[in-house]
Amino acid sequence: MALTSMISFDAQSQYNRPQTPVPPYPYDTLEYVVNNTKANVQLSGTLTMPDNPKAVIVMATGSGSQNRDEEMFGHRPFKVIADYLSRNGYAVLRTDDRGIGQSTGDATLATTDDFAEDAKYAVESLKKLDALKDRPVGIIGHSEGGSIAIKCAPSVDFIITLAAPAIQGDSIILTQTKAMLDASGQGFAWDSLYPTLRKRYDTVMSNLPTSLLKIQLYNDVVKDIPPAMLTDQLINQINAEISAMCSPWYRTFLRYNPAEDIRNVDIPWLALNGTKDLQVLCEDNTSTIKQLNPNATVVVFDGLNHLFQQCNRGTVDEYAIIEQTISPQVLETILNWLNTSIATD
């Protein structure tokens, strides 16, 4: 799968995560529910509210089912970001994704457009709070959450994207796959693997009905596997992967080219990426943003991975090993940009 859906969040306590905030907090922490009446979905979240907030921010998670903290391997990056910003005068709402925690709905039936609708409902809900009236409202989105922020740009006052895809979804996955092979010393396999992946993604991007698509993908996968090796376990694994590729989200993701949405962003936009991001490659995506929207403020951090951790290789296996949740330099950059470009007195 793509982006942060490659990782499931892990709430185990054995990890040392020194940046995770602990009480007492110098701001109010409120349980908050967003009602998406169009989709009949309720999103459960946490609103961190300082006195006299300068602006209000909605957090949008990356792909895959995420809780409000975007928790993985004991890291809680959204909690770290929310705490840092609320300590410095910004109200921040972070919510569990559909079907996670106390949130309702079925994420398996939803697409990025549906998640963008959730974010829009969150924005409109916050605008109605007396404490936040007349305050600028924006979105911080990580990975696919960056796509959500870009889609929501007409409805907000500013956006901040963390490793947002700027090229079509199939290209994101292909470049991601090659980068990970290269980083693991298996780059030699790319030339033989690429034609298979290209054909498979073209099939998924076609207009084939889901039932026929599953059959075609299954036949394509098993044709080169000796019958004796097709154990029940392997067949179940193949079918699970095919079901994921045939989901509304995956098919939409592969087809989505964000170019027009990027061009149309006409509000303040801070776009961040790390040079060792192997999931949303830095050069491919930041150069595209600069080309399509010269007004965006693009900042590249040397040596940071997809989670904006200081790292060695940028590979997924490092995410759990690294104690740092997010580089302090990234937090400082976000705050400085907000203070100079967005904040109200």
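Second entry:
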Amino acid sequence: MMRSPRVASGLLGGALAVTLTACSAPAEPEPTPTVSREAASALRCLVDHSPWTLDLATVDEAWRAAIPADRPVLGGEVAGTATMSFASASGWRFRAHGVAFTLSLEDGAQESTTVTTDAAGDYAVSEAGDVLVLDGLDVDETRAATTTTPDGTRTDGVSIPAPEFPWTATDAAELSFTCTEHRLVISTPGVVPSGWSLSPG
């Protein structure tokens, strides 16, 4: 049985709270008796540059690229916004507003999946600062999938399911990640897409 990585909670106490303030020319974070230098740096990165905006265009491109070649897909598009934020008090939140994945099929039909999500929970990072642990998840999500034929007839459901946000699929998740002031990348091997890119703001 694989051991879960040792983690450091986002609630770091007064000592680390001081390091979560100024972003310009930050000093190297000092380790504490309970938090490694790597974990402290990762936690500060997540908090200082929140909220993070998910690159939905990249998600859409990776999803469509993974559709088997024998499926009759001509193209597609994505709309909406999705953001993730981290608080210094160990809380995180993810919101998706008006997200819609649309596929144009070879027979003239269109498949559309709309997603509205508001998820929140607790978070921590591994001592190595490279694994994000999400727990205590509370998710409010609405998904609607429809197919519209060339004559305008609409039916429920789609033949090609849209991507699911991996951090809202289970009650708890352990996700590899890297964080810099320019980019947060969450890796999900075996899932399409396998990487989720977010930028500050």
